[in-house]
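Contributing new complexes? Match this layout with NAP.
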Amino acid sequence: MTPPKYRRIVVAKRGGPEALRVVTENLPDPAPGEVRVKVEAAGISGLDIMLRARRFPGFPKLPFTPGVDIVGVVDVVGDGVEGLLSGQRVAALLGFNGGYAEYVCVAAKDVVVISGDLDAAEAVTMVANYLTAHVAMHEVARVGDCDRVLVHGGAGGVGTALLQLGALAGLEQYATASKPNHELVSTLGAIPIDYRNDDFVERIRSLTDGGADVVFDPVGGARQLWRSSRALRKGGRLVWFGVAGSKDRGAKVIPASLLMRGLLGLLPDGRKAMTTPDLLKDNERYRRILDHLMGLLAAGKVTPIVAERVPLIEAARAHKRIESGRYAGKVVLVTDA
Ligand SMILES: NC(=O)c1ccc[n+]([C@@H]2O[C@H](COP(=O)([O-])OP(=O)(O)OC[C@H]3O[C@@H](n4cnc5c(N)ncnc54)[C@H](OP(=O)(O)O)[C@@H]3O)[C@@H](O)[C@H]2O)c1
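Output block (do not edit by hand):
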């Protein structure tokens, strides 16, 4: 009998979006302790673009399948797995890769059971974007309900999540975005700042009479982080968690930002700089937060912005769209198209 096949996207040689190739292979069985998930939706993140384009120490070697966040249905349960059944809807945050596929084998301990009623593309935005936003806001910055916050990249995947969670927490919000994204940012309850044409440090200082309590910075780079620290009031907190401002997605920004993190430890007047933790190292915590976020989605308390649902086999087109910068929210790959 011919073994069943499945398709996945593979990067065999680093380069532009055309480096994403569709391959058809034999469908793997889950190892002991794993479940096989039939993927419905896979998120695309800035990390995927960086790893497709360049080599970074500690990240997967070629060939690899990008994708860190998935939602799907358990298809086969591996030996030794308890508490999961075939047919259950699940979400998972994968290590560094693997999500751009019709099927993925995942350690059972890393999946979270979710409601069968949720839209797969909306649910997958919870797995990396809202999770990062929640941790940055409630576990790192520990916002209070009257805090004034500045969210950089307010129209991005994590930025829109921060603004929605911030609105739920009763924060006074300001957000940097390109002009075409100002309407969206306003709809999400923030006062927009045009980072391309205005000096955001001056704007936030005048709007808040002295600076923000918290600045969330997914943009990175030494100059940007320094300026973000200047946008804080005395005693304020800067939370850095990305390199979205880098044209080459991190090649130069990461070392500069790491250096910056050391220097930011020396900020004056009680200002602090912090970053988000690696959640995969704390499985219980990640599952608990993801479960909470799926609850918010099911209750209609957050409404994720899905920029486009792109068929899995058109992953290269999706990367092109992201690199063009002409989108807001999150671009999601889907398998049912
Ligand atoms: N540490 C973690 O756990 C974690 C998790 C998720 C994401 N991240 C990182 O966080 C970053 C953002 O992710 P994302 O998914 O939200 O990316 P995204 O959807 O691509 O959004 C990036 C946003 O950055 C904005 N931007 C670019 N340059 C800017 C600048 N100089 N000043 C202000 N805004 C600027 C863009 O705004 P306009 O389009 O309005 O110009 C865009 O909305 C990425 O580097 C990603 O790797 C980290």
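Reviewers usually confirm one structural detail per submission. For this one: The pocket of NAP is lined by residues 45-47, 128-129, 132, 152-153, 155-159, 176-178, 181, 195, 218-219, 241-245, 276, 325 (CB under 6 Å).
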